[in-house]
Amino acid sequence: MLQEHDNPFTLYPYDTNYLIYTNTSDLNKEAISTYNWSENARKG
């Protein structure tokens, strides 16, 4: 796979950044939902 591309760094950094972004965005969604729940609990 590496030999097919002239520069392997054109592909791999994008893949790793994409994986990191998707993982952190999922964690952020969970954190935001928990934060919203705590805000609603405080108001009530």
From TrEMBL:
<dbReference type="GO" id="GO:0006629">
    <property type="term" value="P:lipid metabolic process"/>
</dbReference>
<dbReference type="GO" id="GO:0016020">
    <property type="term" value="C:membrane"/>
</dbReference>
<dbReference type="GO" id="GO:0008970">
    <property type="term" value="F:phospholipase A1 activity"/>
</dbReference>
<dbReference type="InterPro" id="IPR036541">
    <property type="entry name" value="PLipase_A1_sf"/>
</dbReference>
<keyword id="KW-0378">Hydrolase</keyword>
<protein>
    <submittedName>
        <fullName>Detergent-resistant phospholipase A</fullName>
        <ecNumber>3.1.1.32</ecNumber>
    </submittedName>
</protein>
